Amino acid sequence: MRYLNCAIKRIFDITLALLLIVLLFPLLTLLTLLIRTNLGKPVLFTQQRPGKNGKVFTMYKFRSMNDSRDAQGKLLSDELRMTKLGSFLRNTSLDELPELYNVIKGDMSFVGPRPLLVEYLDRYTPEQARRHEVKPGITGLAQINGRNAISWEEKFRFDVWYVDNRSLWLDLKILFMTIAKVFKREGISHKGHVTMGKFKGYSDNGVEM
Questions:
Q1: How far is CA 107 from CA 53, 103, 138, in A?
Q2: Are strands 137-139 and 109-111 parallel, antiparallel or unpaired?
Q3: Residue in 53, 62, 67 with CA at minimum distance from that of residue 107
Q4: ∠77-80-84 over CA atoms, to 5°?
Q5: What confidence tens digit (pLDDT) does each residue in 126-140 have?
Q6: If 0-12 CB within 10 Å is exposed, 13-18 middle and 19+ buried, where does residue 12 land?
Q7: DSSP 3-state assignment of 35?
Q8: In Å, what is the CA distance from 86 to each residue of 10, 65, 82, 83?
Q9: Which of 59, 154, 187, 206 sees the fewest Cβ atoms within 10 Å?
Q10: How many helices (H) and strands (E) does the chain have?
Q11: Contact 89, 31 (CB under 8 A)
């Protein structure tokens, strides 16, 4: 049954991704032109992220920051490099649209734990690492339950719960709730950050750092 559900989910992912690319082609073209005009090249932000079973893939997003650097040539903080256009893209989640290509490639699914940084892989507890038992998603259970406004520990708890309870009906529920969250623009940033602070793992006494 689990294999059948995975096959149906894959068909659903490909069909919906292709449909959205066709329907949103004018918007994708407009955003490409706006980013190219305001931020220059490249239009896309690419980064290595761990997927299912920790296998690393290249994730695509629309670029939202400039390349401003300090006197030593070091990139400024995210807060200082975030542009007005970039803030709009993130607040509306339009920066996530290029991930449709990741879905078609099979690196990602529409629903699943969000793909985080590769450097986090050795910071998870064994239980938290179970989030990589499924493909990462454009949206997920943590995204509809607080997104970046909740703690890392809460995020991982939602991710593992999804792994243990995933179903096609749950995916559809998460997708519909994601649409509502996007319109309400809830949980976009964590306190003191433009998105979410880095996950630093846990101290020897088990406290999140």
A1: 11, 6, 11
A2: parallel
A3: 53
A4: 135
A5: 999 999 999 999 999
A6: middle
A7: helix
A8: 31, 6, 6, 5
A9: 206
A10: 7, 4
A11: yes
Task: Report strand pairing: 137-139 vs 56-62.
Answer: unpaired
How does pLDDT run across 16-53, given as a tens digit for each residue? 999 999 999 999 999 999 999 988 889 999 999 999 99
- Is the pTM for the entire model greater than 0.70? yes
Q: How many residues are there in the chain?
A: 209
* Enclosing H/E stretch for 36: helix 25-39
Q: Locate 194 and state its tokens.
A: 């433009």
Contact criterion met (CB below 8 Å) for 151 and 64:
no
The amino acid occupying position 20 is L
Q: What pLDDT, on a 0 to 100 scale, did the predictor assign at position 209? A: 54
Low-confidence ranges of the chain (pLDDT < 70): 1, 73, 185-196, 203-209
pLDDT value of position 158: 96
β-bridge mates for residue 111, sequence order: 139
The first and second tokens of residue 37, run together, are 């005009």
What distance, in Å, lies between the first and last C-alpha atoms of the chain?
Answer: 40
Sequence-ordered alpha helix ranges (H) in the chain: 2-23, 25-39, 78-81, 84-91, 99-105, 152-165, 168-184
d(CA 206, CA 148): 22
